Amino acid sequence: MRIRIILLTFTIVAVVAVILVLYSKWPGITNFKNGSLISFETGIINTDKNKNGLNQDFPKVSVFSEKLKVPWSIAFLPNGDLLVTEREGRVRLVAKEGQLTSEPVAKIAVKQTAEGGLHGITLHPNFAKNKFVYLYYTYSENGGNTLNKVSRFTFENNKLVSEQVIVDKIPGAANHDGGRVKFGPDGFLYITTGDAQNPSQAQDTNSLAGKILRVTDTGEPAPGNPFDKRTYSYGHRNPQGITWDKNGQLWETEHGPSGVETGNDELNKIELGKNYGWPTIRGMEMREGMVTPILESGRGNTWAPADIAYLDGFLYFVGLRGEALYRVTIEKPTKLDTFFKKEYGRLREIAAGSDNMLYVTTSNRDGRGKPKDGDDKILRINPNRL
């Protein structure tokens, strides 16, 4: 009996010793202190908040990159690098570690006055094979007319080449140019356009202004669009952000009136062919055949919402004049949470990375903000720490 006890004790000690050796030297061993699995090769931490095995051990907020000028939109390349548009007409390359490449990927001849310039950027769903990149930008037609267009480029040797215009002559102005471009889960390209400071155009289904457009990757109207045109929805003032939730539902952020009647910024649930009311109704006003927003800022209050992103059951959008990050849940999108109010200034772009972090750009050098050291920045925000 005593021999059995001695052998059992020896066995237990040996097993513990082996575990300790493995724990200290080999990857993928459990960290019993916090109940996580840690791979010492990759730094990946698996927790209940990180079921996808992605690194969640980031601080609440960190500066990912800096010294940009009015960064408007982000597209993530397959290797983790970022393409970033600057409103003055430059496309910049930011390495996956955050270093800003000094030489622009492209310099686009834009008309940059007030809100106009180089805006949205997105990759083709089959980018790995065709290397197509899409840009939305403001330009000046012969005679001085301000217009917007969407062009397709090819990404070769860290340059954008071979421009091909796919949607042209979108009405433009110094303000209210829209500008977001993203491919939806249906494989079609969605484009947000502003009313170009002519509100009546938003209700005109023959105009490209004040709309969300849906087109093929070559710019043709997508099959199933209403009116047999490029229009997907209409009655928009200045839509700045679009995203889709896990069910494929399209959501949009939109600027309400400014000046004396400022406020009534909107979060909208977008449906095919629907009329979202501008300029006939605003805020929670109702009219037959028109859609009121899911959530709005109220009269006299403004978010000036820019882009919007979906992640893990939440919609996140950022505010320019509101200078904050906002969050709502899909289940209850009428409850608004606010973060970082006035901490980082004007915020314009928000994009969810493959690491499940939120990448947010400041816009403090756009003539309406107060630049700080290092502006403009790309902030990396850990949503699990909000």
UniProtKB/TrEMBL annotation:
SUPFAM superfamilies: Soluble quinoprotein glucose dehydrogenase
Sequence intervals crossing the membrane: 5-26
Coiled coil regions in record: none
Residues covered by the Glucose/Sorbosone dehydrogenase domain: 68-368
UniProt xrefs under InterPro entries: 6-blade_b-propeller_TolB-like (IPR011042), Glc/Sorbosone_DH (IPR012938), Quinoprot_gluc/sorb_DH_b-prop (IPR011041)
Keyword Membrane listed: yes
A Pfam family assignment: GSDH
This protein's UniProt keywords: Membrane, Transmembrane, Transmembrane helix
Domain of life where this protein originates: Bacteria
Protein name: Quinoprotein glucose dehydrogenase
